[in-house]
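Q: Joint fold for the lines below.
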Amino acid sequence: MVSDDVPERALQLRSQVTYQAAIQVSVEDVDVPVPGPDQVLIRMGAAPINPSDLGLLFAGADLSKATAGGTAERPVITAPLPPAAARATASRVGQSLPVGNEGAGTVVATGSSDAARRLAGKTVAVAGGAMYAQYRCMDAAACMELPDGVGAVAGAASFVNPMTVLGMIETMRDEGHTALIHTAAASNLGQMLNRVCIEDGIPLINIVRSAAQLKVLTGQGATHVLDSTTDAFMDDLTAAIAETSATIAFDAVGGGHLASRILTCMEAALSAGRPFSRYGSDIHKQVYIYGSLDRGPTELTRSFGLAWSVGGWLLTPFLVKAGPARIAAMRERVAASITTTFACGYAGQLSLAETLQPEAIAAYARMATGTKYVIVPDATD
Amino acid sequence: MVSDDVPERALQLRSQVTYQAAIQVSVEDVDVPVPGPDQVLIRMGAAPINPSDLGLLFAGADLSKATAGGTAERPVITAPLPPAAARATASRVGQSLPVGNEGAGTVVATGSSDAARRLAGKTVAVAGGAMYAQYRCMDAAACMELPDGVGAVAGAASFVNPMTVLGMIETMRDEGHTALIHTAAASNLGQMLNRVCIEDGIPLINIVRSAAQLKVLTGQGATHVLDSTTDAFMDDLTAAIAETSATIAFDAVGGGHLASRILTCMEAALSAGRPFSRYGSDIHKQVYIYGSLDRGPTELTRSFGLAWSVGGWLLTPFLVKAGPARIAAMRERVAASITTTFACGYAGQLSLAETLQPEAIAAYARMATGTKYVIVPDATD
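A: Joint structure:
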């Protein structure tokens, strides 16, 4: 099945690290793919800009030095890469890469298989890269059909944040913990984690960086919300850990002292009232860094014994380990509550061309709380 | 069985954090314990000063400000604790603690059980704290009988370093790695690890901090020895990792950038020639910190993707996980080669009183390569 109005060429956003140590992001005309027997062609209605997209999109470039070129319909943004960013992206120099982890849209053409044809005309959510485009071809099996009445914008963020939130909870359980700590907790993802933890009765300690963010989460029913900028933070965190026995944290900040402070408070809470041990408590304390809101080095003071670990956490390897059955159960839960528990709020919508306007970049690339945008690739500019 | 010459009181070294935020280490007269049915009393012939003993002994005190008191036979050393050290040892304030992880000596009294009586007169190696003493009572089952002709000094270090070396190798295997990186590799422990890796055919990358240390290990047959103070270090380490596929490191340094540099080189070696991935390679990279030669913060630049982990490693929890059968096999290997593969060299011997002389402390507390001392508690001062 192919709709009559599918064009042969359409727009796609692409990112390239140049041989001159710069990032170049552009809106390009590309061929619209033709679906294979088990595939469907999706006209993309919405694709969120997640923090995890920005690394591929801008490669750590200094966006304060960005220059705009091209035309209004085919804009090009160029910005220089600092030396560390250039080193880290050496292996992608000269490659024009599509961007966009997830999105949703309408199936406008299908392959010949039953599984593909069954999706004709449906609104589906998908993940897998290259979503900042007017059309995206996907395997039918990878499509998550959205419930009736849920449009592309409402369903665009059905994978990254919801599956990350559920993946954190599954990781907590897999590794024998019973309560969670989360940083940058007023984020879209943090608010979602708070809703899921309330639903599931999991004690959650939310760490934020301002009184305003604290108010957001308290207003949403969070029990433990701590502002890391206050003097009482370490004492308050120690008390909250003593109360909840939270021995695992998911940290979106990455740089600075936050991971170290969390481990220090865990150790203080866990060793209180116990006899002195020269090696610290024997209770394992885990911090997983899953974001880099602070790109500076992680500084660990190691005043928390030897039963600790700090490591990277990423959704994809977790899903590989979890296997198809658990993934299916997680997906089912997300689809059933995509407009409630797993809903995502946006500061605004951007067409593909608008995504490359300097003012828009300045707004969404800050990754500040409340500045999440969604790209609507099918918008007429 | 009790020898006629076992006194009722004998000397023991004890360490106490005072309410005035100071460490006070002294040689005290204490009761000589009487062994229970399954126990033996050991006249301690030798107990090494391992880096792992210094934390309990001096609690991170500023030894440059140490003052000596007491008498020649019953010396007392006092030194102030910097604020961080005082905080870290708050739970041991006012407690007088015995010191000394391991040692060896002669069984001079036994309980009534067969297992205990069988050890009468034997030279045994033991671990479990309080070894800096003239007498130590132990369960017979915890004693490792030393081979004929091996004296207390030769057998004093039969546990900490040998079991740590074997524990590192077992951990490497348990976690799916096939080659090792080791830092501060010219240490007593490092030289031992090098001998075991050569015996077992395990590729080992030794990282040292001087040309002299490099020479020591090269002279002992090490294939990969890298000096981290050279300009070529990062390139050389990357090349050695590419050659050996070493994805796990045991780091005795702890502070500074070394763990981060190792992870960076692992990632560079592992991702070379592969297509760019925005999240780095998917091969897990592990650094275990097991020492604190540099007590400063660990700084991680996080330019090595998300498949990484830095954590504390300690022998005891590893042994608990390994279980009795594996421990027995490890012990057997150590006992069989205690004067060869697992031999330990000392810069000198110290009586209990000499251990508290300022010049002696200055020598062994530096933890510099080649400054390992052994305490001989039964020496006549």
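Q: Anything notable?
A: The mean pLDDT of chain B is 93. Chain B is about 30% helix and 30% strand.
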